[in-house]
Design brief:
Number of strands of chain A: 5
Largest sheet of chain B: 2 strands, antiparallel
Number of helices of chain A: 5
Helix content of chain A: 40-55%
Number of helices of chain B: 9
Strand order of the largest sheet of chain B: 1-2
Helix content of chain B: 55-70%
Shape of chain A: elongated
Structural class of chain B: mainly alpha
Largest interface: A-B, 23 and 27 residues
Number of strands of chain B: 2
Strand order of the largest sheet of chain A: 1-2-3-4-5
Number of domains of chain B: 1
Structural class of chain A: alpha+beta
Oligomer: heterodimer
Radius of gyration of chain A: 25 Å
Strand content of chain B: under 5%
Distance between the termini of chain A: 81 Å
């Protein structure tokens, strides 16, 4: 390489480097200015999705939700009350009814909601809430964050399709945890199999892990601990 | 309205004539709210990138200009993406990936290459703005038609953009939702109809204008 060419090369490289530096600086400034708000937005969205899993009952005091960590919540729902409520209770005497009802006949559903992350998606990590009943069935699934292809791999979004509702009441015993194409029970998305499989597999793995840890620890201890926690939350 | 303005908005509209940036145009235009947000971000990115590229146009030569232009465009898009995440998070949850994809919108690089690097700052900004506005208007037209026919509503989820409650903006139309129009095939269908409509208006106008002098029909971009 001759001298002038080399100088030319350095000049080109220098200009591009300077431009990258300026662009990078601009991005750093905007990133720092928006970082906090975006983080808060993400948390709010996650909370909103979490509450959606428990339905509107959360507002009506029929659900208690206990936070163990950022990624683990325990819940109990008074199903009996919800049924009553639907049949004959008007909103005005709801609270009164609730207090009377708790002692005599409580049909309670309890379970846990965990934040699960799978790296098996088509494009980066998928994070979702998984709510499982203590009986081992799934209560619901809501995706919190993902970068799957819009219109193709994002059918787990409730505003786009009902796919995610299909997990309700599924358990390790009653379900083959894969998409239909691979001999399972779940629909795949048209043109996108990787995304649904990532979610399905992650849930199945998790249910297995839950089952195992329950056996290992002795379920009674966990339950007792949980009962105390719920108690203290009520007081 | 001078000739340049008219170019971006009508005779050389990036979406309807140049047929550039079709990926976001087709994918996002299923509601007015989505169209509006993507259109505005595109408009701002296009204006900003045209400004900066025009500003440094004398420093760019053949070996540096493409990477430099892409870097500037990508920077603006990323800033836009962060701002949408900050102020319109719910919209970002729905169309977030398409905002990032604005980088690959040929309209923007096309204007950088075709106009901004050869023209002064004022003209470049004006060009970016009118081309962006033309794209935004085409996107909005798509959004209005697809939402009205496909969902039977107008301005749904507009509150995610402007705040307040949805009922402030939402208009329910009497027609039954025709789902196909919201789905991807419907996007092609509506775009085809819009282009046909535009060409029809052009032809009628040309016929009225010149029974004596015949002007060649312009179907493709004069630059491409």
């Amino acid at each position: 390489m001759s001298g002038p060419e080399k100088v030319q090369l350095y000049r080109v490289a220098g200009r591009l480097a300077l431009l990258s530096l300026i662009c990078g600086l601009g991005l750093v400034i905007v990133h720092l200015a928006t970082r906090h708000t975006i983080e808060v937005n993400h948390q709010q969205y996650a909370q909103q999705q979490l509450h959606e899993l428990l339905g509107a009952d959360l507002d009506a005091n029929q659900v208690s939700l206990v936070k163990r960590s950022e990624a683990l919540y325990f819940y109990t729902i008074n199903l009996d009350l919800i049924k009553n409520n639907l049949e004959n209770v008007s909103p005005s005497n709801l609270n009164h009814d609730f207090q009377n009802n708790t002692e005599n006949k409580a049909v309670i559903e309890s379970g846990r909601i965990e934040k699960i992350l799978t790296t098996q998606g088509y494009n980066g990590d998928i994070t979702f809430w998984l709510a499982t009943r203590d009986t081992g069935t799934v209560r619901g699934v809501r995706v919190i964050s993902h970068r799957e292809t819009p219109g193709l791999g994002d059918k787990f979004d409730l505003s786009i399709s009902d796919w995610v509702l299909d997990f309700d009441r599924r358990s390790l015993e009653n379900t083959r945890w894969d998409v239909k194409k691979h001999g399972g029970d779940f629909d795949a998305f048209a043109g996108a199999t990787i995304t649904p499989r990532a979610i399905i597999k992650a849930i199945a793995t998790h249910l297995e892990a839950n089952l195992k840890s329950n056996h290992d620890q002795g379920a009674s201890i966990v339950l007792k601990e949980r009962a105390e926690e719920v108690q203290s939350h009520h007081e | 309205m001078n000739n340049n303005t008219l170019q971006g908005l009508w005779s050389n509209n990036p979406a309807l004539v140049q047929l550039l940036g079709l990926c976001p145009l087709l994918a996002v235009s299923n509601t007015v709210a989505n169209s509006l947000v993507l259109g505005i971000v595109t408009l701002l990115v296009l204006t900003g990138s045209n400004l900066i590229i025009s500003l440094i146009r004398h420093k760019l030569d053949d070996s540096t200009r493409l990477p430099a232009q892409i870097m500037i465009i990508a920077t603006f898009v990323t800033i836009g993406d962060l701002l949408v995440q900050t102020f319109m998070f719910d919209i970002h949850q729905r169309i977030g990936l398409f905002i990032a994809l604005i980088v690959t919108n040929c309209t923007i690089l096309g204007r950088a290459e075709g106009f901004a690097r050869r023209n002064g700052i004022g003209a470049a900004v004006m060009d970016g703005f009118t081309m962006g506005l033309g794209f935004l208007l085409a996107l909005l037209a798509m959004g209005v038609v697809r939402e009205a026919i496909g969902s039977g509503t107008l301005f749904s989820q507009m509150h995610l953009v402007f705040g307040g409650s949805e009922s402030l903006y939402l208009i329910r139309l009497p027609n039954e939702p025709f789902l196909l129009i919201v789905l991807p095939p419907g996007a092609f269908f509506v775009l085809g109809c819009l282009i046909a409509l535009k060409n029809m208006i052009d032809q009628r106008y040309a016929r009225q204008q010149s029974t004596t002098t015949s002007s060649p029909r312009q179907t493709l971009s004069d630059e491409l």
